[in-house]
Amino acid sequence: MAKVLQFWNLAPAPGGCPFAHRAWLALEEKKIKHEKRIVSKENKPQDFLDAYHSVWPDKEKNATVPTIIDTDGTTVTESQVVVEYLEQRYKGQGTQLIPTDPAHAAKARMFGELFTSNFAPGNHGIMFSKTQQEVADAKAKLVHGLQVLDTFLTTQALQGGPFVLGEHYSIAEVSSAPFVWRTTFLAPHYRNIDVFAEAKARNLNRFLEWTQAVLERPSTRDTAIPHEAIIEAWKPMVPKLS
Ligand SMILES: N[C@@H](CCC(=O)N[C@@H](CS)C(=O)NCC(=O)O)C(=O)O
């Protein structure tokens, strides 16, 4: 049995995958000692494959990160499940990522869902589109998504701080921070699009306040690997525009 929790994530670096980045943020926020293990898509070591398929028995599916093996051998995969597991297993340690109040916990989780359906598709579209028109459509979709998130934050977030739960950083931010952080440099680099300038032009001030707090959070800063490494990793995946 390993002495510290094993945290499998993707080359080129521990933050290479945004989903693994969620788990890394949770480990940092909860101050959980861990060892980082890196796999590449092309070359997955047998101990990683064995751990993954011990809990996800579909051998036809790619084994993905994040996958963790805790000190007692508990193996968990899927980013949201990993974050929830870490919160429950290490309750009382570091940041409480899921509040005790069920209504507040639901609010944090709802924001995570809203973020996934309103930020991810436009953001994904900007990067993977093949024509200028498709990029423009994806950008419009993302701007609409930012408006929705701004409305949620204005009307639903708790008072007293920049986060969804006011001054309390939670699972809402852990789920979304890796994607927000990447968008600050990937979209400008590959598509010359600054979505935060778009938000500013539309006075989406609550969304911008939230974004700034997320980016300035020590866990975001401490897990921010050099932009160049991520930009390089994306190179083969981003189509040239026609
Ligand atoms: N739904 C999964 C997605 C994880 C995922 O797609 N991970 C990618 C890297 S970002 C991966 O491990 N890919 C390995 C492969 O496709 O072979 C989660 O939330 O953990």
From TrEMBL:
GST N-terminal domain location: 16-94
Cellular component, GO, one term: cytoplasm
Entries under PROSITE patterns matching the protein: GST_CTER, GST_NTER
Name of the molecule in the record: Glutathione S-transferase
Domain GST C-terminal positions: 101-237
UniProt cross-references to Pfam families, sorted A to Z: GST_N_2 (PF13409)
Entry-linked SUPFAM superfamilies: GST C-terminal domain-like, Thioredoxin-like
Cited PANTHER family: GLUTATHIONE S-TRANSFERASE OMEGA (PTHR43968:SF6), PTHR43968
InterPro entries with a match to the protein in the record: Glutathione-S-Trfase_C-like, Glutathione-S-Trfase_C_sf, Glutathione_S-Trfase, Glutathione_S-Trfase_N, GST_Omega/HSP26, Thioredoxin-like_sf
Gene3D superfamilies: 1.20.1050.10, Glutaredoxin
Protein's organism: Symbiochloris irregularis
